[in-house]
Design goal:
It comes from Clostridium thermosuccinogenes. By secondary structure, this protein is α+β, with helices and mostly antiparallel strands. It has one domain (about 5-155): YbaK protein (Alpha-Beta Complex), CATH 3.90.960. The protein is built from five helices and ten strands. The chain has helices at about 5-10, 30-40, 70-80, 90-95, 140-145; strands at about 15-20, 45-55, 55-65, 70, 85, 115, 125-130, 135-140, 150, 155. It has a five-stranded mixed sheet. Strands 1-8-7 form a three-stranded antiparallel sheet. The chain has a two-stranded antiparallel ribbon with strand order 4-10. The radius of gyration is 14 Å and the shape is globular.
Length: about 160
C-alpha cells in the first residue's frame, strides 16, 4: 500500500491512524459506497469539502457522509458573510487532490479546516487519505490536532 502525503504528515506528527484500502467504483464516489467498503457507519465516514469565503478565501469542511454542508454555519464559524463551494475544476489545483480523494491533511497549501462537532461522538472516524480508494481511520481529536481544525456545531445538516 502506497503511503500518501497525508499519511507521511501524520507519521511525522507521531499520530496513530490506520489505512484502509478499497476498490474504487468510478460510477459511485459517494460516502455511502465508501462507508460500506471500509466497514464503517456512514456517519463515521467524513467527507472533505472545499469552499471559498468572501473574506477569508479557501477553506475546508469535514462533515459526516450522510450530511450536507451548512454554508451559513461555515460562514459564521469562519468569519465570512458568505461561503460557497468551489467549482470541481478548482479542487485539484487548490488542494493537490482529486474529487473523491480530498483529505483535510496534506493539502498543497494549509487551509483552515472546520469539522462538524458530531465527529466527537466517535472514538474513530474515517477521512480520505489523499487518494481515491484509501481512507484513514483516525481519532477525531488527533485529526483536529493535526490540522488545527475548528469544531463547529451544526456544520452538517441531514437531508430530509
Amino acid at each position: 500500500m502506497k503511503k500518501t502525503n497525508a499519511a507521511r504528515i501524520l507519521d511525522g506528527l507521531k499520530i496513530k491512524y490506520e489505512l484502509r484500502e478499497y476498490e474504487v467504483d468510478e460510477s459511485d464516489l459517494g460516502a455511502k459506497n465508501v462507508a460500506e467498503k471500509v466497514g464503517m457507519p456512514i456517519d463515521q465516514v467524513f467527507k472533505t469539502l472545499v469552499a471559498r469565503g468572501d473574506k477569508t478565501g479557501i477553506l475546508m469542511a469535514c462533515i459526516p457522509g450522510s450530511g450536507e454542508l451548512n454554508l451559513k454555519a461555515l460562514a459564521a464559524a469562519s468569519g465570512n458573510k458568505k461561503v460557497e463551494m468551489v467549482h470541481l475544476k478548482e479542487v485539484q489545483p487548490l488542494t493537490g487532490y482529486i474529487r473523491g480523494g480530498v483529505s483535510p491533511v496534506g493539502t498543497k497549501k494549509p487551509y483552515p479546516v472546520y469539522i462538524d462537532e458530531s465527529c466527537m461522538n466517535f472514538g474513530q472516524i474515517s477521512v480520505s487519505a489523499g487518494m481515491r480508494g484509501l481512507q484513514m481511520i483516525i481519532d477525531p481529536q488527533d485529526l483536529v490536532k493535526a490540522v488545527s481544525a475548528v469544531i463547529v456545531p451544526g456544520l452538517s445538516t441531514v437531508p430530509v
